[in-house]
Amino acid sequence: MPPLASSPIYFGNFLVTPQVFHKTAHSFALVNIKPLLPGHVLVSPLRAAKRLSDLNHAEITDLFLTVQQVGRMVERVYGASSLNIAIQDGPAAGQSVPHLHTHIIPRHQSDLDEQGGSDAIYGMLEGDDGDVGRHLWEHSRKRPQFPKVDDSSRKPRTESEMAEEAQRLAQEMTRQHL
User: β-strand 10-11 against 20-23: which pairing, if any?
Assistant: First the structure.
């Protein structure tokens, strides 16, 4: 499958072009290096705006239409009955990469009962598990092993695993009725 972008796409300082599965005039969607739940993806503006208030009208419209389209697709592909859609708008809100991004997390009934219920996702987003910036930085440093995390079932994914999922989701986006 040919790449979606003719030029490199950055998420903050991180080159993420192989992880991108959907691109619009002002936004892109990418697979997550360490998803909190299966199908957890990110949507971000192409311009490295730090905060939601930094976006112009065209960018914010495109961002939220893209969130809606990608959300429909991941809900269908991952057989979810609901979605968490979250923005950590600035460092005090838990934003770890200084590039605005929207988390889209497919949800199923009782999927986090063992972690305390459906609201456990918010703690996961704000904790070490949700620190996308740290995981990307560690991955970019090519460390031989990531630090241990409490949730032993959540392992950082390889470049090839992320690229494979990005290709599959890109194909699914073409099937999506936009």
Answer: unpaired
Cβ atoms 139, 105 nearer than 8 A: no
∠ CA(9), CA(6), CA(58), 5° rounding?
60
Helix axis angle, 159-175 to 57-77, nearest 10°: 100
Beta sheet of 82-87, edge-to-edge order: 20-23, 27-31, 41-45, 102-107, 82-87
Catalytic residues: 101
Please list, in sequence order, all residues whose beta carbon lies within 8 angstroms of the beta carbon of residue 158, skipping any fewer than 6 positions away: none
CA angle, 112 as apex, 169 and 29 as ends, to 5°?
25
Mean pLDDT of the chain: 85
What pLDDT is recorded for position 146? 33
pTM of the model: 0.80
Residues 124 and 45: their CA atoms lie apart, in Å, by 23
Q: What is the pLDDT of residue 36?
A: 92
